[in-house]
Amino acid sequence: MDLDQVILKCVNDIWLEYCKTGSNSLSKEETMNFIKNTLTDMEAKDFSEADFEACFKEFDKDGSGTLEKEEMVAFIKKVSGL
To answer: In angstroms, rounded to a whole number, what is the distance separating the alpha carbons of residues 25 and 23?
Structure first.
């Protein structure tokens, strides 16, 4: 399995856990739940609402107010330094 396949599997797993509508996008609330849980797991505490809003805006490339799978893939690659 190459890196892109691993990232796509990760994104699909995120959708299974956090996407309550079964759509191809996460709402802002669903994305916030994912980020909060991830940061809690990492014991990171210095992530404010303003930080989330800035991050969400950066990765919501089409400005739809939701995060599509392709945008999440780009997000994961960026925060991973890829």
So the answer is: 5
